[in-house]
Amino acid sequence: MKAIKRWTGMLLALAMLAAGLPAGAEDAAESAAAPAAEGGSWSQINQSLARGEDWVRIVSLPGEFQLGEARPLEGSPDLMIADWGSYPSMDGSTVCVPLAMELARQWLDLQEEDLNGFVNFSTTPVAYERLTEGKANPMVTIVSRKTMMDDAHPVDLVLGTGPNADERAAAEKAGKELVMVPFCCDAFVFLVNSENPVRSLTVDQIRRIYSGRIKLWSDVGGDEKSTIAPYQRPHGSGSQTAMEELVMGNWPLIGTEMYISDGMSDLIAQIGNYDNARNAIGYSYLYYVEGLYKSGSIRVLDVDGVSPSPENMRGGAYPFTVNYYAVYEKGNETAARFADWLISDEGQACVAQAGYVSLR
Question: Is 357 in a helix, a strand, or coil?
């Protein structure tokens, strides 16, 4: 029965991915074999993530991290199932999809047509659930090789924002110690509609807006008597964790279902297209806004008069600078070696080539 399920699932995945569209294109994202969790990360991306003309190979092949052997799938000799070998099975946050694609290009020499199926990220909360509970990231495919990766192999490594308090508690309850290795910088940013005259907010103003103490844009230099519409993300999402723990701290978040956006793409669309768009404010990560889901109808605010530039991130001048992490269970040697490589000079060059702000 298990072999039949694998065979059926693989046929479905390969059929869905065989369209041959450019990696990361919106149509390809929608047709990719996405996880069950609300369409997975690809449903939150509207930009092409195909490698640029200036792409260079950084890793010398064959290298330390390679996939294992592939064998014919039981009952279907034309289809293959492959072991993960020395390459870690990954899942993670939407914002780290381009990095996972770059790592697969460098270490596995995968072609662009294969990357949509191979980088099958489920978004932050599901990725940490899989890591903590020892679950696999299913339906990872290499289309050109008619290959499905071993769907019984647990997730080794999560790439993304750090786990929130609930996720850390779940790991502790499961008896698992999570190791977090920061590998890049990004900015947690606040967004308004491009028609909003406000250009900067202070940290205190942001906290007062999201705790319900400031309700009018005129109180922070905006339009007179214009009521602020403060959008949030669901608890457990990577951006909501940053909002709760990094920005608000002990400040209470205003509770309103009216302004909850399921996905980061939804939040950006709502701020840009909301009927009372000039009233809206929301938040995301700068890398996501600039590289994964672009909208000409939003603007990124400065915070305390400081812009979220690479220099201000590395130097700590921007108040809401964050890291993305390679997270794994202590004792997983494959994941540990890969995380160590990711912060090496070679690994950091790959991080930078994927468009992230490297640590150095």
Answer: strand
